[in-house]
Design a protein that fits this description.
Elements: H1 3-23, H2 28-54, H3 61-95, H4 100-129, H5 135-160
Helix pairs in contact: 1-2, 1-4, 2-3, 3-4, 4-5
Length: about 170
């Protein structure tokens, strides 16, 4: 085993834990603090170690895409998902899990989390494919990612529409 394969193994395991965790939303505040945040730092540091070890160019589109997705996901997790999980817990404690406020916030946090999951899966595919010199793969992945996010948002908006009352005579 080389240092590259060691760092790559650490990187892929951290990515799998991160994406797997995003797929199974439990108590986001606890999971976020104890699992997501440490795992994202391990993921980033192992990725940087691989880049340095192989002397890869930081300007490759799949590298830039991964770094942007990392920053976006970290910001969404630390700035929204974790704190929102705490706010949901407080509402549930005060009003119960079936309250309209709790249900609306749960739908919203799941929607944001699903959009993030689409991005993370796209990043994993991009990291595996490494579309260097093949712009078709890169742009195809971006289009697939945007389409996935659009489907998640359309599903959210469809569910947010008020039910139409039956016509009365």
């Amino acid at each position: 085993m080389t240092w590259y394969t060691f760092f790559k193994s650490v990187h892929v395991v951290a990515a799998a834990v991160w994406v797997g965790g995003a797929a199974m939303i439990q108590d986001t505040e606890i999971v976020g603090m104890r699992l997501f945040i440490p795992t994202t730092w391990i993921l980033l540091l192992a990725g940087i170690a691989m880049m340095i070890n192989l002397d890869w160019s930081w300007g490759q589109n799949w590298i830039v895409f991964g770094l942007i997705a990392f920053a976006l996901s970290f910001a969404v997790g630390a700035g929204f998902l974790g704190p929102e999980g705490g706010r949901i817990a407080q509402i549930i404690e005060r009003e119960g899990p079936d309250s309209p406020a709790a249900q609306a916030r749960i739908r919203r946090i799941l929607t944001v989390s699903r959009c993030e999951l689409v991005i993370l899966v796209t990043v994993i595919v991009s990291m595996v494919v490494k579309p260097t010199g093949n712009a078709g793969w890169f742009w195809g992945l971006l289009i697939a990612m945007l389409a996935g996010i659009a489907l998640v948002l359309a599903n959210y908006l469809r569910g947010a529409q008020p039910a139409v009352a039956p016509a009365t005579e």
